[in-house]
Amino acid sequence: MMTYEDQLKSDEWRKKRNNILQRDNYHCQHCKRFGICGDDIYIPLYTLDDIKYYITNKELQELIFDSFFNLSCIPGTYDQYGRPIVDEKKFNLEKALFSHSTTKYKDTIYKTNFNISAINSSDWLQKHPFWSNPLLHKQGETILNQIDDYILYSTNISLPKYINGRKILINPYTSICSYEIQHKEKSSYGFLKITTAAIHILFMNAHIDDNYTEGSTYFYTNLYKQEYEIPILNIHHKSYMKNHLAWEYENSNFITLCKNCHQKEHNQNNLPIKRNEEVTISHKYLTFFLSNIDFAQIYLSIHYPFSYQFLVENWSFFILGDAHYSVSIVDTDTIYHPKLGLVFNKNIRWNSKLRAKFNYGLWDPFLGLFVGTGHGQTEYNEIDFEDTMIPLDIKEEFEARDSCLLQMNYLWQQDSEFTPTFYSDYDLFEEIPTLTFEEFKNKYDKFPLKVLVNDSIWENTLKDIIDEKFCLTIFNKLKYKKTQNYVS
Fold it and tell me: What is the pTM of this model?
């Protein structure tokens, strides 16, 4: 029989823990702070700016970005004609020959096609004797700076034994490396790893400024030598079942909490033993969603915090949404019903690649363009609608639609057969406490629109029940439904 400590060291628990951290966006779900995830967790980054979402300390942000900007600068000054005068001495100090050995650390990042390997530059260490002490470091003196660096590369290439590059000393506990290695992949991609000892940022094709892209980089800073308050994240079991191993629970039974919030949770609550029959609650909801698949497709598009990879792989099966009164539609004498979908999802980690997939405004079939934005999204670069508009606000959308109805008062008063519907009459966005399955179903039967758009139903009832496995089942049915339509 495995001890609980052994269970937490197992590969099964590592995978479960990784999935829960990813679902919760690597933040404590009570205090909403980002925290230390551990040595085996690599957080995906698509641009350098994504770092701001996790590292919120301004001083630490500045240290990271200044380090990357150093890569685009050749040490030296400029003469009176604007020609660079290279500081050969400083430049030679930055030059490094990295050696790669198959016996050193190597890891494939979970659910990706990327490897990370340890590499070492003995010549750089000799030129910087105060950086670390290799002998003490090997004996376990962990407060010292590390002697190895790391490199990110695709699993479909092999690293050469020796790699030329630069290693810039930013301060006594921070460095950044660039490697002369060509990647077949041209898109920007990277990972953030944060432990109690250090922050590691690895990037392929990092866009540092408008004129400079670095092919392969690695940033390191020693946290032992700095006073940054970064909490440690734990995965909390909401309840326990007899004869179940640590990972043998549905994802809805786990939540990411920082160390302090985790301790408060245990102090305030006597954790119950979960009875086996209670596990079936998720199956009840899954059966309900599968039986109402069109509703499920829209609901998940609006509320579930999908990962970027899931979104890209299943893009054609999402309801995107495209009718936006909240974009200030003018000169419109027709009442439109909002088409709800992914564009209203505030729980997704939106990046520029996702935002770029959308058109904005309301499609006018008579004009053949999107109206409401004043102009097409690609015609004027001075206004970035991608950054200012997504995600849209459902409540604002319905309020703006009701406002349009009031402005069109003169139209519908002349038509005695037409009585407009004002959504404000139905209190769609009232705070609704946790619902039982029967209560949820009754609300759906009475007014499905309220269930669809009300954030508190998601937050208080469904957020802890619906997980990625649940979503995969729904999307698999959508795919099957699409193939059946083709056949028929």
Answer: 0.59
